[in-house]
Design a protein that fits this description.
Length: 447
């Protein structure tokens, strides 16, 4: 039975590749859902359990098809990418690569780089070319919820799903060994669709779409809770709370009450989801104990600060850092990392690395501010931006609890998308204003 699901997913991926060529933004949905879908496929077909990277290739092919389709139909898809923020981000990436030259664990560093390089190529160098306008981002919202909901349903109903160490994970058969899927990835998908469900503004509001939104919020938050991923749940809820005021403009009393009713409904659904999915397993309930949460957060932070202590104790390394993946040298574990991008860049790449990172972050902020100024009066535009910005904050927060710079380009692919859209939308607005002035001049009217 599970094998049949595997073949259906392969057919679905083939269809997704063709659809991505004609509707490029759809490939973005597959990137967001990549890890949960891959875990499911690994339970369906032993081949993918033994060769998990092949599923990555399928998603990569969908992204490549989408980029090709967009470039063939729209030359403007190439514009806006090489802006200051994106160029400096790529310079930072190269600089971190150079850090292998002075790290005492070059083999460990190269292993981390090799693991992350395909994702950097797919998400930072290719993914932005799926989008030309802000409206292209809006087109990903409904497909993201639908594919995310499907992944959640398949996960919860999968016979290989069970609680382990307080987390609902998939038991993946791998050469007679017990291998568990990554609960952080499934919880992250849950947070992603919950944010979209809460913040998006449907252009054609109807009971069906609103039902999908409520289901996405319910199962999305439920997935984060069941997976025992406290950081993902907290980051998702915080992102929704921060950006909901931006997503809806309240211009009159009627809108005030409608917005208030929406907040109440979504808030109740979220609370019900947390209540239902919390406490299904004794160990899972223990993970959500505030005392235990604080204890584990403190232990993880202490590990990362050991890297900063080593850096501070070596003044010669203040500028350039101790070298890429130096954390694994401290821990004595080849694949370990600091789980905090800020502390990692300071300790391993020094003042040079963290300064470039902060400048990139500032440039992304200014691009986001420019986009907001352009679309704040457009209800659909401001809601789309609220979703996009919330995703950026969501992934940025997670990078401070589980991230590593070269290992995974999160949140940087969202940062790149924001800066690219700021350039292209500014150019479109300028062209519109110029055409408006020319038309007014030709008709002898004030511009």
């Amino acid at each position: 039975m599970l094998t049949a699901f595997g073949y259906l997913m392969l057919v679905g991926m083939a269809a997704a590749m063709l659809y991505s060529f004609s509707r490029p933004p759809f490939a973005f949905v597959l990137v967001v859902c990549l890890y949960p879908l891959k875990q499911l496929q690994m339970t369906y077909m032993g081949f993918f359990a033994q060769n998990s990277s092949y599923f990555n290739f399928l998603v990569f092919a969908c992204v490549a098809a989408g980029v090709l389709g967009n470039l063939m139909r729209n030359r403007a898809a190439m514009s806006g990418f090489l802006n200051k923020a994106n160029v400096l981000l790529l310079v930072l990436y190269v600089y971190v690569l150079l850090g292998v030259a002075w790290t005492p664990v070059a083999d460990n560093a190269w292993a981390r780089i090799r693991d992350g390089a395909p994702y950097w190529i797919m998400q930072v160098l290719l993914l932005p070319f799926l989008f030309t306008t802000l409206d292209d981002v809006r087109k990903t919202f409904v497909p993201s919820m639908l594919v995310g909901l499907l992944a959640c349903v398949l996960f919860f109903t999968n016979p290989n799903a069970s609680f382990f160490a307080g987390r609902l994970t998939l038991n993946i058969p791998l050469a007679g060994m017990e291998y568990r899927g990554n609960p952080l990835a499934t919880a992250q998908l849950g947070g992603h669709i919950a944010i979209i469900a809460a913040l998006m503004l449907p252009l054609r509001a109807g009971w069906l779409l609103n039902g999908v939104r409520l289901a996405a919020l319910f199962l999305g938050l439920g997935m984060a809770v069941a997976a025992g991923s406290r950081g993902q749940l907290a980051a998702a809820v915080l992102s929704i709370v921060l950006f909901y005021p931006l997503a809806r403009r309240v211009a009159n009393v009627k809108q005030f009450f409608l917005t208030g009713a929406g907040v109440l409904i979504f808030g109740l659904v979220g609370l019900v989801a947390i209540k239902i999915f919390l406490g299904q397993d004794a160990e899972q309930l223990g993970r959500w104990n505030i005392t235990e949460w604080g204890k584990q957060t403190g232990e993880r932070s202490a590990d990362a600060f050991h890297l900063i202590e080593a850096w501070w104790a070596n003044p010669a390394a203040w500028a350039l850092g101790l070298g890429t993946n130096y954390f694994s040298f401290l821990r004595g574990e080849p694949m370990s990392y600091a789980h905090n991008v800020l502390l990692e860049l300071i300790g391993e790449n020094g003042l040079v690395g963290i300064t470039m990172y902060l400048v990139v972050a500032w440039l992304v902020f200014t691009s986001a501010r420019d986009l907001w100024r352009m679309f704040s009066e457009d209800p659909a535009g401001r809601a789309t931006l609220a979703c996009l910005f919330a995703q950026a904050i969501f992934l940025t927060i997670l990078s401070y609890k589980q991230g590593t710079f070269v290992g995974l380009p999160e949140p940087y692919y969202i940062w790149v998308l924001i800066t690219k859209l700021a350039v292209t939308e500014r150019a479109r607005l300028g062209a519109w204003m110029q055409q408006r002035e020319w038309d007014a001049y030709a008709q002898g009217l004030p511009a």
